[in-house]
Write a structure and sequence with these properties.
The chain is an alpha+beta fold. It has helices at about 30-45, 75-80, 205-225, 230-260; strands at about 10-15, 20-30, 50-60, 85-90, 95-100, 105-110, 120, 125-130, 135-145, 150, 165, 170, 175-185, 190-200.
């Protein structure tokens, strides 16, 4: 059976920012560029873990369609801005971030009280504007880890906290992925393919880390489709091959060592000469 050639060159070229990169994979066997590209793209957009706000409690607010005195934005617009927070979590538990601001000012993500379990990647994000010295904003933002896009309706656990406003959560750390296929020449063949991925993340993960994670996920999924017996047989065959190769290498080394050993001169036997 003819083996399908594997890609040999994978390059990561930086984009305009640290969160952008162009990844090239070549040369791919004819038809395999689009096969790999579509699979990796779908995993990047849907299956990488991340962190996001899932709910909020605002002092003096009972639902998202209200307005707050001395606040330029209404509560719904404020919540939409909070959803744009990009976060790195160092725990699997739910974390509460506190926001307590008084006086006339522009509220930014950097005004959220620091928490050792959560790192805010975009501290310059503007959340709202307080237009009067008498204004204030006191809120508790609930943050969780997750994967993909989770709607309010799909959540099984419901919070029983007073005035708790649930939020749709976008956990995916990947902002956009574009896949492109170009033809490349391999020997006399001109129909081989080069896969080009234009990848942009939200800053919580690098493009290279995102790419490697998506490939590992695909490997696990495809490995589950192979019967365990055949996997064991292949593993045993590989082990036997390695053992045979090691034996051959040892034998070759021994042969070379014997040739390199200097031969000892044989002493002549006989009676000593008379003086």
């Amino acid at each position: 059976m003819e083996n399908i050639a594997l890609p040999q060159n994978i390059k990561f070229n930086k984009g305009e920012s640290d969160n952008e990169a162009q990844i090239t994979v070549e040369p791919c066997f004819p038809g395999y560029g689009i096969t790999l590209g579509n699979s990796i793209r779908r995993v990047l957009l849907s299956s990488l873990p991340g962190a996001a706000p899932v709910g909020i409690v605002i002092e003096g607010v009972s639902h998202e369609f209200m307005t707050s005195p001395h606040l330029k934005e209404d509560i719904l617009e404020f919540i939409l801005n909070v959803k744009q927070l990009r976060l790195k979590m160092h725990t699997d538990e739910t974390v509460i971030l506190n926001l307590d601001v008084h006086g006339k000012k522009r509220i930014k993500a950097s005004d959220i009280e620091p928490n050792p379990e959560v790192e805010i990647v975009n501290p310059d994000l503007e959340l709202a504007v307080i237009t009067d010295m008498a204004g204030k904003m006191n809120a508790k933002i609930y943050v969780e880890k997750g994967m993909g896009y989770v709607t309010i309706e799909s959540r099984e656990e419901k919070q029983s906290i007073v005035n708790y406003i649930e939020m749709d959560a976008i956990f995916s750390p990947v902002v956009s992925v574009g896949a492109k296929i170009d033809n490349v020449r391999v020997g006399k063949m001109t129909n081989w393919e080069k896969l080009i991925l234009n990848l942009k993340t939200d800053g919580t993960i690098t493009p290279e880390e995102a790419f490697n994670s998506s490939v590992k996920i695909l490997i696990k999924q495809f490995s589950a489709l192979i019967p365990k017996e055949s996997v064991k047989k292949e593993a045993i065959k590989d082990e036997n091959k390695d053992i045979e190769e090691n034996k051959e290498e040892k034998e070759v080394k021994k042969g070379k060592a014997k040739k390199e050993e200097p031969k000892e001169k044989k002493k002549k036997r006989g009676r000593p000469k008379k003086s």
